[in-house]
Specification:
It is globular and about 70 Å long. By secondary structure, it is of the alpha/beta class. It has 3 domains: 3-60, no CATH class; 87-113 and 218-392, Rossmann fold (3-Layer(aba) Sandwich), CATH 3.40.50; 117-216, Rossmann fold, CATH 3.40.50. Helix 5 packs parallel to helix 6 (169-176) and helix 10 (247-261) crosses helix 12 (313-322). It starts with a helix and ends with a helix. The chain is built from 16 helices and 15 strands. Bound molecules: pyridoxal-5'-phosphate and zinc ion. Pyridoxal-5'-phosphate binds next to helix 10. Zinc ion (ZN) binds at residues 18, 20-21, 23, 33, 35-36, 38.
């Protein structure tokens, strides 16, 4: 055998098809159909061999254990260690909601940048590799900026990252530290996104959520695959997920559907529930009222979900309605409560989007949308250390004492009469 035939085949990206008109085209860094401006999705070979449960279970614990459902041929070259985050059993949350079981899909500990955006960037950066691009970038509300910067740094790629001017300190520092070119744009996320579409055209870079979006989005499906495998190859009855652009919610349905179609899991797709902050809830309002999506100007402390004109909003709303789910919006005070009870019940410290998801699940349970028979997974997507300013002021101040046992005794007695929680 020659060297070439032993080596694994070079990485290539799958071709694309328009979600609206069905037009097909060769793989390329392009997200919009040239015929009808519809969104493009990767096309898989329906006859490709698919692995059995046991084969998947033997593979390394990363999202690439599901590589047959990711949009490439050949082996991925970068970000091989992302994915397979813990699924945390949370009986205290189940009692709080009045449902049978609750698990937290804990992407707060995602590698390497502590949010679920590592999944989409792991997919997008391999698309960049397949296309031979040496510069990637993004328009971001914060977590995507962190992820693109981290993944690009270890791949040795240049990263140009565009964010709205006003973001949490940790999101800014957690991007610049990797040596990326970080640019703050005066305007909303939607302004930043429009700018990035022009940047992609002008410079030929791989903007992960613009011209690499068809490949980027597929990374989100791995949340669904992992939930099914970690529950012992079955589906929960309901999943609650935060929505920004609506991609994660849309891809959860696709991922669960694909595992059902492959015969890996029996039973229907779980009911999907979407969560947003009421200061920016265009997808929730679309679910509630129907009609067309009405863009909004964001006014919420939950900046990670603050997309006023979500690219996949209509698809997310459809996935919610067609699976028999629903959507809920929660105010900023409620989301802060959500962060606190998620931490206190499940030991998971989430950023604002996690607070939105937890508080929305509570609201859905109180409305009877989640019931006593339900087995519910909460998708908790980003770490709380990224948005300390959201919750810091709401917490009791720690007492300062002398290094004296008597002072501790006093505190313990006070705690007996005035418990902190
Ligand atoms: C980006 C993001 C989401 C969801 O994003 P979609 O655009 O809807 O896929 C959820 N949570 C966090 C923390 C995020 O950063
Ligand atoms: Zn089309």
């Amino acid at each position: 055998m020659t060297q070439a035939s032993i080596a694994s085949p070079p990485l290539t990206a799958r071709p694309l098809r328009c979600r609206n008109c069905g037009a097909e085209r060769a793989a390329a860094p392009i997200a919009i159909c040239e015929e009808c401006l519809g969104p493009l999705d990767p096309v898989y070979d329906p006859g490709r061999p698919l692995p059995a449960r046991e084969t998947i279970a033997r593979r390394a614990p990363s999202l690439w254990r599901y590589k047959e459902w990711l949009p490439f041929d050949g082996d991925p070259v970068w970000s091989l260690d992302t994915g397979f985050t813990p699924l945390v059993d949370a009986p205290a949350l189940a009692r709080r909601f009045g449902v049978a079981r609750v698990w937290v899909k804990n992407d707060t500990v995602s590698h390497p940048s502590l949010s679920f955006k590592d999944r989409v960037v792991a997919a997008a950066i391999n698309a960049a590799a397949a296309f031979g691009l040496d510069t990637i970038g993004c328009a971001s509300t914060g977590n995507l900026a962190n992820a693109v910067a981290a993944h690009a740094a270890r791949a040795g790629l240049t990263a140009w990252i565009f964010i709205p001017e006003e973001l949490e300190t940790a999101k800014v520092v957690g991007t610049s530290v990797y040596g990326s070119r970080l640019v703050r744009v005066r305007g909303t996320y939607d302004d930043v996104n429009r700018l990035c579409a022009q940047v992609a055209d002008r410079f030929g870079w791989g903007i992960v959520n613009v011209n690499l979006r068809p490949y980027y989005g597929e990374g989100s499906k791995t949340v669904a695959y992992e939930i099914a495998e970690q529950l012992g190859w079955r589906f929960p009855s309901a999943v609650v997920a935060p929505m920004a652009g609506g991609s994660l919610l849309t891809k959860l349905r696709k991922g669960f559907g694909e595992f059902g179609a492959a015969g890996l899991v029996a039973g229907g797709v779980p009911r999907l529930y979407g969560a947003q902050a009421s200061g920016c809830a265009p997808i929730v309002r679309l679910v509630e009222r129907g009609g067309e999506l009405q863009p909004e100007l964001p006014r919420t402390i939950c900046r990670s979900l603050a997309i006023g004109n979500p690219a996949d909003g209509a698809f997310a709303a459809r996935a919610i309605r067609e699976t028999g789910g629903w959507a809920a919006a929660v105010g900023d005070a409620e989301l802060v409560d959500g962060i606190r009870f998620l931490a206190q019940d499940a030991g998971v410290f989430a950023e604002t989007a996690g607070g939105v998801t937890a508080a929305a699940a509570l609201a859905l349970a109180r409305d009877g949308r989640l019931g006593p028979e339900d087995e519910v997974v909460l998708c908790v997507t980003g770490h709380g250390l990224k948005t300390l300013e959201a919750v810091g002021n709401a917490l009791p101040e720690a007492p300062v004492i002398a290094a004296r046992l008597r002072d501790v005794t006093t505190l313990v007695e006070e705690e007996r009469t005035w418990p902190l929680r």
